[in-house]
Amino acid sequence: MDIFFLYRKLRYYFPSYIKFNMFGKLFKNQSVQKYLLVGRYTTIEKGFVSGVCVQIGAYSYIAPKVKIGNFGLLSDHVNIIGNDHIYNNITVPTTLAGRPSDYLELETILEDDVWVGHGVTIMRGVHLGEGSIIASNSVVTKDVPAYSIWGGVPAKFIKMRFKDAEIVQHRQFLKDFRDGKYVLLHDNKANFKKIGSDE
Length: 199
What we know:
- With 199 residues, the protein is α/β, with parallel strands linked by helices.
- It has two helices and 20 strands.
- Strand 17 and strand 18 form a beta hairpin.
- The chain starts with a helix and ends in a 5-residue tail after the last strand.
């Protein structure tokens, strides 16, 4: 175990300046897996679910009911927001109108191995497909297909991340990991052990 790995492991247990709004009853309605690392001054609301080896950068805001799959990588200043005000009541100002009835039900999903760049805003209810990438400072307003790269305001398709044969290979590895055929041994290296193997 290297010294940097040890340092990060300590941060898992003693995060600094992180506001987890799921505290109160610790991890109630939460599912947090091994190697979750959250940057400073980040807020995570209730209903949060994370897979293995998820990293969320500093100064980020994660709205209620967000699910991030294995190996999710969110940079600093990433915000998952929206659908949090009633704005179409002609008799009440927005600031006094409250929240929509489905505010706590709307789910945002980031599948396995999604990379979200610095300063990205993701509107709640969006589904980011497996292996997708969002370029820095983009605003994501609709679902993003698997293994595609999007960017801009609003975000639009740029190109595919892999060729078709590479997608098949990468997708199979992620499935094998979900099925327990591999175990991750280190949070900052491609260090996997195949179950049933002495390698």
